[in-house]
Amino acid sequence: MAAFLSMPKTPILALKRSQAFMNNLAAKCRELNPLTHLSLLSIGLVVAFIMPYPIVFLEIVSILFLSIWTSFFKKFSRQFIQTVCLVGGIIFFFQLFFLPSGQNLYQVGIFRITQGGLNRALTYSTRLMAFITTILFLTHLIPVRDLALAIEQKGVSPLLSYILLASIDWIPEMKRRLRKITEAQKSRGIETEGSLLTRAKAFFPILAPVILSAIVGVEEKAITLEVRGFFSQSPKTYLREIKDQKIDHLLRKFAYFTIISLIIGRILYGFYHA
Predict the structure, then answer these.
(1) How far is it, in rounded angstroms, from Cα 15 to Cα 18?
(2) Close Cβ partners of 125 (under 8 Å, ≥ 6 residues apart)
(3) Cα–Cα distance between 70 and 137 in angstroms, integer?
(4) What are 125-180's pLDDT values in tens digits?
């Protein structure tokens, strides 16, 4: 027992130091300008479309690894499984079994796996999964309001930044409305749970209030924007400024250089294989 206690704790110390380093790195990354995050993650979007599927798969794994050190890992991983894996699996299945081409590898009944179908299934499914994963990670990493504010402070029209903010926030807002209206309908005695037929009957009593509340919400937002002088031509001030540090400029230049290099490489060497 004494010998066990006297064993060197180097691995434990190394693990703690690595965790502390990653936490500090994550804190530094959160201080970056939202446009810098957007530029760096744009590399992932380009890679998802022009690189071979093994590299695209490594991109997905890398984003998942990065998400471990973030505060939103649980939520991100749950949405990754529910959305990315589901969509990727559906695309893979249809491309593999319903669009066969090339050499026949395996056959079960009417379903057959071919070399061309397998390559196409791997390519399309990994590309789509990488694209969705990057967008999902971006929405968790960058607060949408900060991104819209950073774009506006760079000289973009406030109308465009508001459209961006409203477009991204539309689905979560509709989910909140749907949840509230569903709870309200439950309190009125409408059955919203149970068999498929029961849920189908409750669909229209819930759908109509959701649509009407969304229409009313649009009018309320328009009035709010007008009252706050959104359409005024006078110079606008901000409650807070999004800082743009020297490291932000360097990282954005690196991102632009990488994206241009990838595109030129795709054109010159043709490493895109559909």
Answers:
(1) 5
(2) 88, 89, 91, 92, 95
(3) 10
(4) 899 889 888 888 887 877 777 787 888 777 777 777 777 777 767 767 777 777 77
Q: Is residue 263 in a domain?
A: no
Per residue in 102-135, pLDDT (tens digit) is: 677 677 666 777 777 788 888 888 998 898 888 8
The kind and range of the H/E element at 194 are none
CA 12 to chain CA centroid, Å, is: 34
Is the CB of residue 185 less than 8 Å from the CB of residue 191?
no
Classified as helix, coil or strand, 74 is: helix
**Which residue segment(s) compose the domain that 206 sits in?**
162-231
Q: What is the pLDDT of residue 72?
A: 80
Amino acid 45 reads L
**Residue 199 counted as domain residue:** yes
In a domain, 242, yes or no: no
Radius of gyration from C-alpha coordinates of the chain: 25
pTM over the 0.90 mark: no
* 107 DSSP 8-state letter: E
Cα separations in angstroms, 31 against 99, 158, 243, 256: 47, 23, 9, 20
Instruction: Tell whether 36 and 138 lie within a shared domain.
Output: yes
Same domain, 174 and 135: no
Q: How far is CA 232 from CA 5, 150, 159, in A?
A: 71, 20, 11
Determine whether 262 is exposed, middle or buried from the number of CB atoms within 10 Å of its CB (0-12, 13-18, 19+). Answer: middle
